[in-house]
Amino acid sequence: MYAERPSRLAGAVVWTNAPSGSPARPVLPDGCMDLLWHEGRLLVAGPDTRAYAVDGVPGRWAGVRFFPGTAPTLLGVPAHELRDRRVDLADLWPARRARSLTARVAAAAGPARGVEEAALALAADSGPADPLAARIVAALQAGRSVAATADGLGVGARRLHRRSLAAFGYGPKTLARVLRLQRALALARGGTPLAETAALAGFADQAHLTRDIRRLTGLPPRELLGPAVHGTTGGGPRG
């Protein structure tokens, strides 16, 4: 069973997932990165460009899903190096530092609290996230084009692309598609008909929405929005 709640870390979400006997739900692209706890290990889930299947990874999970663009500063790793990957924290950090944070999570009153405290500690020890990242997200979430976003932020297209790769793991055009997908899923899961969802989310028409959903998730809309797929816009568990 999957559950989530807002984190004490601004913009982040704490989630847990335990085996329930139901079919495993794919993790959908959402522009986010996660710090994961599973069977005594700390891992990092990089930004996804496609649905990630979690089949064959049993056991209980806990995680913190960071707001898009914030995790690279906390972890000290550019997002594009982790794109479409799940990596042990020990493979990214010096062994002693990774062991220290892992021990901190293990000693906490439950994995969810432990991984949240670890995220808060990372935030306290690191500098502020790239301020441009949040402005990029806000512009693209509002449905602005990549060109309009660059103009509005006063940056050139190449600089926007470089900063996006480091903060989100992919360029602004892909990030815009991912954020648009999440807008559409939120509308559709709230009961908005697909044709209206397509218009409100910024697609040319319903056929455009259907094509983009298939490209990013590998599933048709009707199957994606069925009961076997997690219903939040946050992307679900990241194991």
UniProtKB/TrEMBL annotation:
<keyword id="KW-0238">DNA-binding</keyword>
<dbReference type="InterPro" id="IPR050204">
    <property type="entry name" value="AraC_XylS_family_regulators"/>
</dbReference>
<dbReference type="InterPro" id="IPR018062">
    <property type="entry name" value="HTH_AraC-typ_CS"/>
</dbReference>
<feature type="domain" description="HTH araC/xylS-type">
    <location>
        <begin position="130"/>
        <end position="227"/>
    </location>
</feature>
<keyword id="KW-0805">Transcription regulation</keyword>
<dbReference type="InterPro" id="IPR046532">
    <property type="entry name" value="DUF6597"/>
</dbReference>
<protein>
    <submittedName>
        <fullName>Helix-turn-helix transcriptional regulator</fullName>
    </submittedName>
</protein>
<dbReference type="GO" id="GO:0003700">
    <property type="term" value="F:DNA-binding transcription factor activity"/>
</dbReference>
<dbReference type="GO" id="GO:0043565">
    <property type="term" value="F:sequence-specific DNA binding"/>
</dbReference>
<dbReference type="InterPro" id="IPR018060">
    <property type="entry name" value="HTH_AraC"/>
</dbReference>
<dbReference type="Pfam" id="PF12833">
    <property type="entry name" value="HTH_18"/>
</dbReference>
<keyword id="KW-0804">Transcription</keyword>
<dbReference type="Pfam" id="PF20240">
    <property type="entry name" value="DUF6597"/>
</dbReference>
